[in-house]
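Reminder: ligand-aware prediction takes two inputs, not one.
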Amino acid sequence: MATQFFPDVQRIAYEGPDSRNPLAFKHYDAAAVVAGRTMAEHLRFAVCYWHTFRGAGADMFGAPTMRHRWAGAADPMRAAEETLEAAFEFFTKLGVGFWCFHDRDIAPEADTLAETNRRLDRIAALAAKLQDDTGVRLLWGTTNAFSHPRFLAGAATNPSPAVFAYAASQVKKAMELTHQLGGAGYVFWGGREGYDMLLNTDMRRETAHLARFLHMAVEHRKRIGFGGALYIEPKPHEPTKHQYDFDAATVHAFLLANGLEKDFKLNIEANHATLARHEFVHELEYAVAHGLLGSVDANRGDALLGWDTDQFPTDVKECALAMHTILRGGGFTTGGLNFDAKLRRQSIDAVDLFHAHIGAMDAFARGLRVADRMIADGVFADFVKQRYVGWDGDFGQRIENGAATFEEMEAYTLKHGEPALQSGRQEMLENLLNEYLYSVR
Ligand code: XUL
Ligand code: CO
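Here is what comes back for the chain with D-xylulose:
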């Protein structure tokens, strides 16, 4: 591919931990084998199209600060094509295996649905060609049913069935394109599926409509033979005051209540977890515990700002704990680590996009190595096993298997008296984690 949009950057190489080259990997060595798989296979990095190529630094208080070379064409379709070409040049130079998009990121919306879909077909044909040329694959596709004013009161949960129908038409098309491009998954993030006030909202009806919408999506997936996974991405609030897909546990309950639990897995986003006042690893652990881990939107928030800042993940400890849970859950199958993250408003150069992704990939590569050592040594797992050892005996097993009664519990307690206490050893384990974090290179 001719270098056009990032002429100053060559393919990013792995140079090892002693390198001081900001445009090289210090830890991410795609072909290095960790626990039987290459780093590339474990981490399945994806670049997101929306922030990386369509974001330009605008915030609630100010205009865009970045002038992207690829966004300058006067004809919006030409600009869309150039953006896609720039994106594939970037994916290739960075050395990521995957990308993710929303329908409205890749092709500008036209005046009618029919014309919008024609534009999407034209861009998807170019995407298919660029995928073939580069070997970069689609991790997942999704629909933007939250930016256009028609979605001011939500999409599937809108008070109007006409808006529900519009959103369904969009998902239909975006899922078909994802299928056509060989996508490994399809994401549902309920952009405005929630409410701003309850006095104007029929919550029971709205959530029932959301379930119906998802059932219709499952039926369409079967009809077109799309074999990719379907994911729901929880988020507690923002843009609405309350989003129905609040967190992993809320979505799980919703899926179970509506007979959808076999058809959906979760796309866990770090910054959405923290907005729900959970640690990122809590959401992952919940998903793994219930067989729901699908994919991850890898980013981070800012503890002092408290909104969805979508920063690039650079906290090695957070990445290590995340990988510790992901690896113990068997690792990714269809999913991966999608950088749903954007540059800070003052990072205005194209090279900043490389710095951001290189740092994030290195942070996860270090996290992977740390997690692998933690698991291989077995110290944390042994501690947990020992902590629950009482449950492995006859008495504990009778309870776990459902054979025991409250009468038996009372008889046991009367006989054995006060239970022995044991320390949870939190500080010892925190110290140990630091040893793993700072001794592994
Ligand atoms: C919004 C968010 C979305 C989804 C896809 O907070 O995370 O970008 O990942 O719609
Ligand atoms: Co996301």
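The first strand starts at residue 13 and ends at 14. Residues 189, 233, 269, 297, 340 surround cobalt (II) ion (ligand 2) (CB under 6 Å). We will return to this case in the review session.
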